Amino acid sequence: MTGPYGKSTLTNVPTDHEERLASVHLDIPFNVTDRKALAVLARRISDALSEPVGLYVPHGREWQLDAVSAAESSVPPIDHLGAALASVASAPAQPAVEQWADADDTWTLVCCRTRPVIVVAMRGAWATLSPALLLLARNVELMWRARRAMARARSRLASHRLARRLSQVTGLQPVHEAIVETMASAVNARVAALAIPDAADRGLSIVATRGYALELVEHLRIPPSAGVFGAVFQSGRAIHVRDKGALPEARRPRPRYRTDSFIGIPIRAASDVLGVVCVTDRLDEEAFTIEDVWTLKALAVPAALALGRERALVQAENYALTAAIDPLSGAFNRRHFHIRLEEELQRARRHRLSLAFVMIDIDDFKQVNDSYGHLAGDTVIKDVAEILRRSVRVFDLCARFGGEEFAIIMPGSVLEGAAAVAERIRERIEAYRSSEGPLETLRLTASLGLAVSSPGVAGRDLIARADHALYLAKRAGKNCVRTAEIAPMAESAAQGAAGPDVAAGEPEQTDS
Length: 512
Prior knowledge:
Blueprint: E1 2-3, E2 6-7, H1 15-21, H2 34-49, E3 53-59, E4 62-68, H3 78-90, E5 96-101, E6 106-112, E7 118-123, H4 131-167, H5 172-186, E8 189-197, E9 204-210, H6 227-235, E10 239-241, E11 262-269, E12 272-282, H7 290-324, H8 334-351, E13 355-362, H9 365-372, H10 374-391, E14 397-402, E15 405-411, H11 415-430, E16 446-452, H12 459-475, E17 481-483, H13 487-490
Parallel strand pairs: 16-17
Antiparallel strand pairs: 1-2, 3-4, 3-7, 5-6, 6-7, 8-9, 8-12, 10-11, 11-12, 13-15, 13-16, 14-15
Helix pairs in contact: 1-2, 1-4, 4-5, 4-7, 5-7, 9-10, 10-11
């Protein structure tokens, strides 16, 4: 081959050099980065030949000097050697050996058909067809294939471990944290984060981090297409940057990070992007490799299954909750109320506990609709439901029974405590004042009927007893509480008063 300064001559490889070249690939550690493995290889070839050696690797369309046996100045620069590198890399011979010369030295180039190719540049004019050089290239190719096989094995092992871990955790946050920790550990990343599209479609929210506190970023909303997260989310494709500083759009330094290399990986279910993981700062401060990208892509598969599973569970819970909630009042609906009443009665029987049941009816509600309109009536329904929620314990159940009627299930309550809660509700409804202008003059009252379960009582019988007590409260003049146990005596009670059937006692509650 002819270099820019004329043609050089070729010499044969001495026997001792041949023996050394045959073993340079041995014992290069698999647990180091490719760049470090190449550095070891360059030093060993240099020691075998007692000449400077450089290893050149293409990155995209550009060649780079990935390893050198001594100072970088001891090997030809890329701008001088670029054409020769392209020539030997495209040569049909497998492997290819060519020669290049400058004004001072002659260099022998050996192309190893790895992926990507590695061109070994050795100072000196060595025999083009020397068996030692051909064997060197073959050995490097085999070593590189072994490294790739090892990388794929590590990737499969990491994927298996992540799948096992995700099968053992439930809940969105534990799943988010498991994904970030496992993916970051698999590629030795110091910093990582997972972003998912938020429910309101306002962009992406960071939900789990490694290397910095989630509290610093959880309030942020990343617009689709903005930054690495947005670009990966919008395109659905991975981004791998070895050196951010080499990008034309790099605008400012990254003082928080130790390196300028990062990877962004989409977590996909078919065409739907469920989230984006971004990793940066390898612990060894090397650039991320294409093998790291493969590893993260493999881990994205079980991650997508777990995110899809958790999203489906959340959607199912939301659908179930929607089916159980009265859309106007926000209280449970009548269907859900009947289901829960039977469950609580069974629990009460098993544990030999009582259960209190209260029915509430807003007095003269038709006049509210007639005088103020149905929209005003809707506001009253919402406000009364809120009064009920603020007057009971967290595990009590409030339901809209129908129209202007509500019901409350109070597990474990006895007559005295339940009666005190019922009286408190009556007082708060009587004291209700709306902040809306048209309803400022409205005055509300409610009648309440209370029943306490007895052993073996059926749900329909308990409802009937509370309903009868409510009927007696209406008969007594409204705006009062009556209990089923002394309902026959309550008819003579004074109108508008709670009567002697309301006993003292304050149960646990959640006033706010």
